[in-house]
Amino acid sequence: MPFLKQVVILAGGKGTRMREMTTDLPKPMVSIGDKPVIDHLIEIFEYFGNFEFVIPTGYLGNIIDEHFKNKKNVRVVETGLDTNTGGRIKKIEDILEERFLVTYGDGLANVNINKLIDFHKKNNSIGTMTVTNPVSRFGLVNFNKESRVESFIEKPKLDGFVNIGFMIFEKKFLKYLNYESTLESKPLAELSKDGELYAFKHFGFFEPMDTYREYLNMNKLYNSGNIPWKNFN
């Protein structure tokens, strides 16, 4: 038996910051190039091996269900229109295996899945989250004590780290969840407080598709022919 074979892709959000594209589509079904972003995400995992995918849905989940109806290694589960991220995981508790990976259905990154799994295995913890240094949306201005501008820095990488998904959990993590939980707040904070959460650092490509601008940028990258979320180390 492989150490980990189940991937949960959270795909229930309403995509309210991308209304240009999500009036009639759930955000994971918005196309990058010739296929939905969720297909690109699944291909990241399939590069590293054979995984089984569970997709908890909400907003326009029937479209996701129809898209995957003939794919044997994908199971789509309706988890409610207004359910939070942690609640969606809790609602699929009965079909989760003893260890599973969780990520978001709208974020692409060239995370080395094998290295992530090895890192989780080495630390023997309940949870592992992948983190990266985000790029600032804005350029920075440097100036001296007299306020004279000395230089510009175009959209630098920030010093801090952010959670980008690609999280691994042991099933005992479910005790930290209830049907109203937001995964990114109290559950992860409590797991950290108990010393059971580790951070896997990713220094490669990452981009979420939260806004129309990011959608346009992802398509630009795809059409360039050098697709950064497929360049693995």
CATH topology: Spore Coat Polysaccharide Biosynthesis Protein SpsA, Chain A
Unreliable spans = none
Q: By helix and strand content, what is the structural category?
A: alpha/beta
Shape field: globular
Helix content: 25-40%
The share of residues in extended strands comes to: 15-25%
CATH class (first level) name: Alpha Beta
Mean pLDDT: 93
The count of helical stretches stands at 7
Largest sheet: 8 strands, mixed
Backbone CA Rg: 19 Å
Domains counted in the coordinates: how many? 1
The count of β-strands is: 14
H and E order = EHEEHEHEHEEHEEEEEHEEH
- What would you say the CATH architecture is? Alpha-Beta Complex
Write the layout of secondary structure elements.
Layout: E1 6-10, H1 19-22, E2 31-32, E3 35-36, H2 37-48, E4 52-57, H3 61-67, E5 74-78, H4 85-91, E6 99-104, E7 107-109, H5 113-123, E8 127-132, E9 140-143, E10 149-153, E11 162-163, E12 167-170, H6 186-193, E13 197-201, E14 206-208, H7 212-223
Parallel strand pairs: 1-4, 1-6, 4-5, 8-13
Antiparallel strand pairs: 2-3, 6-12, 7-14, 8-11, 8-12, 9-10
Q: Can you describe this structure?
A:
The chain is of the alpha/beta class and 233 residues long. The chain has one domain: Spore Coat Polysaccharide Biosynthesis Protein SpsA, Chain A, CATH 3.90.550. The chain has helices at residues 19-22, 37-48, 61-67, 85-91, 113-123, 186-193, 212-223, and strands at 6-10, 31-32, 35-36, 52-57, 74-78, 99-104, 107-109, 127-132, 140-143, 149-153, 162-163, 167-170, 197-201, 206-208. Strands 1, 4, 5, 6, 8, 11, 12 and 13 form an 8-stranded mixed sheet that branches. The chain is globular and about 65 Å long. It starts with 5 loop residues before the first strand and ends in a 10-residue tail after the last helix. The mean pLDDT is 93.
